[in-house]
Design goal:
The chain is an alpha/beta fold and 292 residues long. It has helices at residues 5-17, 20-27, 31-45, 61-72, 77-89, 101-118, 131-139, 185-188, 201-212, 226-234, 244-247, 274-277, 280-291, and strands at 50-51, 58-59, 93-99, 122-128, 145-148, 158-165, 168-172, 183-184, 193-195, 219-222, 240-242, 255-261, 266-272.
């Protein structure tokens, strides 16, 4: 892989200004010269560095990673080329992820941790917020991808289904429903429930199933994450509906799971711009999420 100092200089200026015209003006060269060098660099690396959809010229996750590598290794072009090679393979660089609380502290965090343990030049930052805030961060360019429940109808974004969670009933060890092989929603709702907050898509899906079956229920307490819900359940505060993979992190003696007789399914999607979704680092993350 051949990367020149001039290519790096022009890339950095385009990255800094978010505009080939402004970069060209700053360097006193023509705009086509900047555009040509950026295109050559993208062709050499094999990934897209800028999102050019519409009138946009926004850096992708690969561009953020390359710029960080250049700033860190300005003293050695060989180190920059090495970093570029890892960015091209998806095994180096940075990815900024926003995720809903229900999956952030388990599925997303576990996947990111495993990838960074395998690739010491890879950095995945995670921020936790509601679905609406996740999409706002994505659209503003302050996040590279979002792990959320819905698949937004937005021409500027694409989504990949990571998994469809079949939730289970979670019970304290002394609950009478422990004796049953399978639990219905009606049986579950005969006791107090602990739930995710009302703005959670997971909770909305559960409430919709309860409403369709005309099942009354009482919410004893709310918690932002599934881990917190499980602490409530273990303590006997109430019953819950949770992701079985998250529940697997807790002792079977303290928390009892039973299949839920219901059509309830929780989808989990990774959403990003088309250019970011095509990057090796994003594909690596998506594949790991699917397998996790």
């Amino acid at each position: 892989m051949r990367i020149t100092a001039r290519q790096i200089e022009l890339f950095q200026m385009a990255y800094r200004h978010r505009s080939t015209r402004k970069a060209a003006d700053a360097l006193h060269i023509s705009q086509p010269a900047i555009s040509r060098v950026v295109a050559e660099l993208e062709a050499e690396i094999g990934v897209q560095l800028f999102d050019r959809a519409g009138r946009r010229f926004e850096p992708t996750a690969a561009a953020h990673s390359l710029s960080a590598a250049i700033r860190s290794h300005y003293y050695g072009i060989d180190r920059v080329v090495e970093a570029v090679s890892m960015i091209a393979r998806g095994t180096g660089g940075m990815l900024n992820v926003v995720a809903q609380p229900a999956v952030a502290d388990t599925l997303v965090a576990r996947t990111a941790a495993n990838l960074m343990a395998q690739h010491d030049k890879l950095r995945i930052d995670i921020d936790i917020m509601g679905e609406r805030e996740c999409l706002a961060m994505l659209r503003s360019g302050n996040a590279d991808c979002a792990v959320i429940c819905s698949s937004p109808r937005d021409t500027g974004l694409v989504s990949t289904l990571i998994r469809e969670i079949k939730p289970v009933a979670a019970l304290p060890a002394d609950d009478p429903l422990v004796a049953k092989a399978e639990v219905t929603l009606r049986e579950l709702a005969q006791g107090d429930l602990v739930m995710l907050p009302s703005d959670s898509p997971f909770r909305k899906a559960l409430e919709l199933e309860l409403a369709k079956a005309r099942i009354p229920f009482n919410v004893r307490a709310e918690a932002r994450t599934q881990s917190a819900l499980m602490e409530f359940i273990i303590s006997g505060v109430g019953r819950g509906v949770i992701d079985p993979q998250t529940a697997a992190l807790f002792s079977k003696a303290a928390l009892v799971l039973r299949p839920l007789k219901s059509s309830l399914v929780w989808p989990v999607n990774l959403v990003s711009s088309a250019s970011t979704m095509d990057l090796p680092i994003t594909r690596l993350f998506v594949d790991a999420l699917v397998k996790s």
